[in-house]
Amino acid sequence: MNNLCIRFRDAILPIAGIIAAWQLLAALRIVNPVLFPSPVQVFFAAGEMIRSGVLWTDALVSLRRAATGFFIGATLGVLTGLLTSRVRIFSIGLNPLFNLLRPIPAIALVPVAVVWFGIGEQSKYFVIAYSVFLAVWLSTHHGMEHVPDIYIRAARSLGASRGLEFFQVVIPASAPHIFAGLRFGAALSFLSLVAAELTGASAGIGYRLEEARQYILVDRMFVGLVELGVLGATLDSIFVWIGHRLVHWEQA
Q: Which residue, 135, 129, 124, is CA-closest to 61?
């Protein structure tokens, strides 16, 4: 119980300090209040969006898109990482291509996705899955490729078959890397979500940010940014909690 209170205090106090400094800076009116709203203005804007139902609708739509894109990208990333790290022909054929694609940001693919899939949900799933896939693939490939040789030799000296060696040695040894890739991919799903929702969307956090920009409603823009931050931080905390239980040997 004490540890929980300490963690809660450590999380709340810095946020409270940032909000206080933000309020003070806004009160000094160094910047035009239209362009830099105070926390109070953002709070009231969030209240209006909650009452109208816009905030919850956008959150649910964006979460569905991020979850779908993450699932597609993460599944393909793990499977492809297994192949490129353990099968030489896949490593030779695919690694150069993926290393060429990794520097290309998701937002650069939005026009291509719209041409390929239209302005519907498929283009948004593609953009999100693309970002997640490359992050998860890289972590999976790296983790599988760098399993200590001593683990492999020990398993073989004990007579383990190839299948047993893979599932009982290689997978557990690389699991921390795979899980780190999944955690990073979850964060990227929110980053690419905004880019995906800037075109051909009628709901979602990214769409609402663009709409607020057009009408210079900076307080609503801040609401969207805070919403993204809260959702991302909550998801990251969930991944950390799951990781401590599924990959418990990493902390041993």
A: 124
Yes or no: say if 55 and 223 are a contact pair by the CB < 8 Å rule.
yes
Instruction: Please state, in angstroms and as integers, the Cα–Cα distance from residue 146 to each residue in 97, 106, 150, 175, 177, following that order.
Output: 21, 28, 11, 12, 10
Which pTM does this prediction carry? 0.84
Taking CA atoms, 41 is separated from 48, 199, 200, 204, 240, in Å, by 11, 28, 29, 22, 33
Distance of CA 1 to the CA centre of its chain: 30
Estimate the crossing angle of helix 218-246 against helix 171-197, to 10 degrees. 170
Cα separations in angstroms, 220 against 182, 200, 241: 31, 20, 32
Inter-residue contact 212 to 220 (CB < 8 Å): yes
- pLDDT by 10-residue block (mean), the chain, 252 residues: 54 79 83 85 92 92 93 94 88 89 87 88 92 93 83 77 77 86 90 84 87 90 91 86 75 50
Specify the residue for token string 């946020």: 15
